[in-house]
UniProtKB/TrEMBL annotation:
Source organism phylogeny: Eukaryota, Metazoa, Chordata, Craniata, Vertebrata
Top-rank taxon, per record: Eukaryota
Protein family (similarity comment): Belongs to the RIPOR family.
Family annotation (Pfam families): PL48
Coiled coil: none
Species for this entry: Menura novaehollandiae
Protein name (Swiss-Prot/TrEMBL): RIPR3 protein
C-alpha cells in the first residue's frame, strides 16, 4: 500500500474509529461511508474557500486604505506608523488567511489519504471475490487470508481518517428563533424542543405569551459537526403532567458550511401547521 496503516496514523491527530458491535460476540466492524465523506468534504472545502475569499477581499481593502493613508497623510513621516490601528488590522487578517490556507491544505491531505485507502479497499475486495470463485487451493486460501487482512486494514484506516477529518469541521452555533404556527399557537401554550446531533443534545422549553411573543429558557447552543449524523428535532407540547408529541424531523447539516448565517424553517407537523425557526452560524 502506498500509505501504510502506521504511516496514516503517525502523521495525523486521530480520534478512535467508530466501531459497531457485530452479531458475533467479541467482534468489531468498522463502517466507513465514502459517499457521505465526499459530500461533507466538498461542502467543507467550499465553505473554507468562501471564508478565504472574504478575508482576502478585506485584506485588499485594508491594504488600499493603508496606501492612501501613507500617501496623503503626515503619518508617512511618523516613526510610530507600525503601531497605528490599520497596520495591526492588516497583520491580523494576514495571519488569519495563513491559518485558513493551512486548514484547507490539511483537509485536502486527509481526504486524499482517505481516497487512496478507499481505492485500495475496493481493489482488495474485488480480488477477494475473484479468489473466492476460483478453485480452492492452498495458494488461493492463503491469498484470501491476506486479502481479507488488507480489507480490514484499509477499512480501519478509513475510519481513523474520518475521525481526523471531523476535527477540522468547526462548530455550529444554533440559535432558537421560535415556533411559527399561526392559529395553532395560543397564549399559555408551553412547548419543549429537543435537538440532537449524535451524542450532543439540546433541550429547551418555551411559552407563548399573551402578546403572542415567545420566551425560551435557552437561546443558543454550540454543536460540533460530525460526518455521519443529522440533526434530529423533536417538538412536544406540555399540558400539565402530560406531553403531546407534535412531530419529529431530521435535518441534514451539509448546507450549513457557509460564511453567512443560515435561517432554517423546519416543518414539524406533516401539514406544516407548526414550524420551527432556527439560525445556524458555522
Amino acid at each position: 500500500k502506498s500509505l501504510s496503516r502506521s504511516s496514516v496514523r503517525s502523521r495525523m491527530s486521530l480520534k478512535p474509529p467508530k466501531a459497531y458491535n457485530s452479531l458475533q460476540k467479541g467482534a468489531l466492524i468498522w463502517d466507513p461511508k465514502p459517499l457521505q465523506v465526499k459530500k461533507i468534504f466538498e461542502a467543507l472545502k467550499k465553505g473554507l474557500n468562501e471564508y478565504l475569499e472574504a478575508h482576502q477581499a478585506e485584506l485588499d481593502y485594508l491594504s488600499g486604505r493603508h496606501k492612501d493613508t501613507k500617501r496623503n497623510s503626515r503619518l508617512v513621516r511618523c516613526p510610530f506608523l507600525s503601531l497605528c490601528p490599520l497596520p495591526k488590522q492588516i497583520r491580523s487578517v494576514e495571519r488569519y488567511i495563513r491559518k485558513l490556507e493551512f486548514h484547507i491544505s490539511k483537509v485536502e491531505e486527509l481526504y486524499e489519504a482517505y481516497c487512496i485507502q478507499c481505492r485500495l479497499r475496493d481493489g482488495a475486495t474485488n480480488m477477494k471475490h475473484a479468489f473466492a470463485l476460483s478453485p480452492a487451493t492452498k495458494a488461493s486460501r492463503e491469498s484470501l487470508v491476506e486479502l481479507y487482512k488488507n480489507v480490514q486494514e484499509c477499512t480501519e484506516d478509513m475510519c481513523f481518517i474520518e475521525g481526523a477529518l471531523e476535527v477540522h469541521l468547526g462548530e455550529f452555533h444554533v440559535k432558537m428563533k421560535g415556533l411559527v404556527g399561526f392559529a395553532r399557537l395560543c397564549p399559555g401554550d408551553q412547548y419543549e424542543v429537543f435537538v440532537r446531533l449524535g451524542r450532543q443534545k439540546w433541550r429547551l422549553k418555551g411559552k407563548i405569551e399573551t402578546d403572542d411573543s415567545q420566551t425560551w429558557d435557552e437561546e443558543e447552543k454550540i454543536f460540533i459537526p460530525n460526518l455521519h449524523e443529522k440533526f434530529e428535532i423533536k417538538v412536544t407540547e406540555l399540558r400539565g403532567l402530560a406531553t403531546i408529541l407534535v412531530g419529529v424531523v431530521t435535518c441534514d447539516s451539509i448546507n450549513f458550511f457557509t460564511t453567512k448565517p443560515q435561517a432554517i424553517i423546519v416543518d414539524i407537523t406533516e401539514l406544516g401547521t407548526i414550524k420551527l425557526r432556527l439560525e445556524v452560524l458555522w
